[in-house]
Structure formats: C-alpha cells, structure tokens
C-alpha cells in the first residue's frame, strides 16, 4: 500500500496529533543518537510537547553544549562585518548627534549670556522665561534643603536633650549616694571622738579620794 504525502499543516484531531507527535519524537531522538554515534558529532536535542513536557537527548553534557553554542553565536555576531548600509546609517546617526550637541552648546552659551548679540526679541524673551523658571526651581530646591536641615537639627536637639536628661538623672542619684555615705562617715567619726572623752571623765571618779590616802 502506497502511503500518501503528508500535508504540512496542524493536525486537527487531538488523538491523531498526539500519536504523530510520539512517533516522530521517537524517530527524531533515534536519528540524533545515530548521528552522534556514526559521525562522532556532538548532538543535543530539546523537545517540548504541546503540554509542556520536556524530552531531550545529548551525546555529551547538555549544559556544556548550550554554553558552546552561546559562545559560538556571540563570536559570530561580533565578527560579522559591517555592511555598507549599516555604515551609512551609523554616519547619519553620528552627524545628527553632533548637530544636537552643537545646538545644546549654543543654548548653554545663551543661558550664560554669551552669543546673544544676534538673538531676536522672541529668542531673548524665551531665554528670560527659561532663566526665571530655572531660578524658581533652584529656590524651591533651596527651601526644601533648608527645611530638611532644620528638621535634622531638631531631631539632633531632641536626641541631645534626652541624653542630657539621662545623664542628669544618673549623676543626680550618684551625688545623693555620695552625700549619704559621707554623712554616715561623719556621724561614725563623731561617735568615735565622743567616746574617749566620756571614758576620761569616768576615770576621774574611779578610786578613793586623795584625802583618804593621806
């Protein structure tokens, strides 16, 4: 039985499409294996099914083959000669860029007050308006910076006040402890000084009177 020529279009029947995919996938994997063995070629094959399932074959490490392919394509792109059309396009782009740079330099000089001798009234008014707009932006930014700095100083002031309060509480309690200990020492010292004097007075009344001894 002679097989008819297969039409290259999507198979509408889902079952027939799945059967065809399985057969041709296996055949493709077999051909890749045969090519790698018969010709000693480095072959890597990646297949994703319609449902996203991965099928792959690699005669060596798949990642090494992919890295080799990326290096090869990168070198090929970098060594590709620039065509005449691309060269003309690059020259055109470079000329436009130089023209824009010259226009920007001229506008910069006019803003600085240079080269305005040939400017018309409209151009001078436009420059003046642009300068006024720039001054407003600068002043607004300056005010914002001042506010930010004031806020930062307030925060620092609060932090220093809190630290000062902590130090005051710490050293205040320390002084109280020192005063209490000194007071106890002075009281003890007074008691020690008073006790010998009482002993002396007591010794004066011990024993017989001098007259009885005679």
UniProtKB/TrEMBL annotation:
Q: Where is the MADS-box domain?
A: 1-61
Locate the coiled-coil region(s) and give their ranges: 87-170
Query: Does the keyword section mention RNA-binding?
Result: no
| GO MF annotation terms | DNA-binding transcription factor activity, RNA polymerase II-specific; protein dimerization activity; RNA polymerase II transcription regulatory region sequence-specific DNA binding
- What InterPro entries does its record include? MADS-box/MEF2_TF, MEF2-like_N, TF_Kbox, TF_MADSbox, TF_MADSbox_sf
Q: Where in the cell is it found?
A: Nucleus
Q: Which UniProt keywords apply?
A: Coiled coil, DNA-binding, Flowering, Nucleus, Transcription, Transcription regulation
Q: Out of the domains of life, which is the source?
A: Eukaryota
One GO cellular-component annotation of the UniProt record comes to: nucleus
In the record, biological process GO terms are: flower development; maintenance of inflorescence meristem identity; positive regulation of flower development; positive regulation of transcription by RNA polymerase II; response to cold; response to gibberellin
Name it. Answer: MADS-box protein SOC1
Q: In which organism is this protein found?
A: Arabidopsis lyrata subsp. lyrata (Lyre-leaved rock-cress)
